[in-house]
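Limitations

Structures in this collection are predictions, not experimental determinations, and the ligand pose is part of the prediction. Treat each record accordingly. The example that follows, with zinc ion as the small molecule, is included so readers can see exactly what is and is not provided: the inputs are given verbatim, and the output is the predicted complex.
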Amino acid sequence: MARALQADLTLIDGRLVPGVVVRVARDGRIVSVDEAGSRTPTEEGDRSPIQRLRGKALLPGFVNAHSHAFQRLLRGRTEYRAHGRDGDDFWSWREAMYRASELLNPDDMEAVCRFAYLEMKLAGFTHVAEFHYLHHAPKGARYADPVEMSRRVLAAADFAGIGITLLRVAYQRGGPDQPPSPEQLRFVDPDPEAYFADLEATEAGCADDGARPVSVGIAAHSVRALDGDYLRALASGARDRVVHAHACEQPKEIEQCLAETGRRPIEHLADCGLLSERFSAVHATHLGEGEAQLLGDAGASAVICPTTERNLGDGLPDLPELMKAGVSLAIGTDSHARIDPFAELRQLEDGERLRTGRRNVLASAAGEHVAPTLFAAASSGGARAAGLEAGAIAPGLRADLIAVDLEDPALGGLVGTRNAENAILAALALGGHTGLVSDVWVGGRHEVRGGECLRYRQATEAYRAVVDKVFG
Ligand SMILES: [Zn+2]
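Predicted complex:
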């Protein structure tokens, strides 16, 4: 429905502006953004009465640019040191993740995705890029409908009322000269022809309902899981779809790539023709000399997942190097050890402060504040990575919006003082939390009201049954 919203403050071009009226048309797009004193021509949304959002700030919705929704199951379940090990790391965590993934049937998958997507929406994410690789039945048997699992993921996003870019993952092997392990067989499309057949079948069954964006993209799992011929076939069949790939998350993957191809992962992906303005490198933690520039020259994005990268002990990426090279940044909650966009934002900058011993590292010029860069990664950068016309409060874009509570103690002593807009934005970026998110609109639809979403309780019961099946 058409609507008009007026919060106390509205985030426009990195600034919190008072008194703005945002008008949304029936098709879920913003038709006008009227700053105090200005008036744009009347449009469809103008007939709606203005809904005053008192004590709130209106922000662009956050985009979760990297998710494996089923890994939500592992939250809290892998935080101990297993018997018989010298120490845990990414690779031992992966074994636990594989064990959980082996047990999930399509009903379980849908239940877990529903729950994870509702948590995201309540946290202020209006869109998710789902890096989906659990395609087939255990041991790799095909379901009667080969794209059943993809359909279930899309159905879960529909239930949860969140926009989705389903990135169907191509997965071929366990590593260079290494066949897939029994657990990995569920992920495998043995050749590009099989992959594209399933990708197109997924696209054929997916309808963008206008207000809630739904699309399908390509994911190359990693240079470990795909050989050069497969990567080249993905590049030549990509057309205008977005393409994501895990890259440079772990040193071992880089060593293997160098041994197999003589090139580092980003160099190899570039050689295979995958880099473009529609490409996103997920993690980009351990880049070698010149790799950030390869991404920047192609107009590509990097999706950073700070909470997961810390949880798995991946390391800290060099964000200023990526920014200097012109790489657009986005964020993702990846393994969902936590689903909190504010935590991801904060850690982008905090990680740099710890890595470099300096402050305000992500402010791109003298005199600039750091918060606008952080919010841009979570909204416009994420929208770009997900191939989405959203990510800012501006006419023509989708009305993916969130309201945050300015009366929360986290902002106490700032609101109501003079010239506080920059300080409020900084406090949100560096000290915000999901409890601040009171309302969420996805394509203009009012999905979360007063911090609540009616379907959450229903989703929780089904989710608990899956948890008991996997861990009980
Ligand atoms: Zn991932």
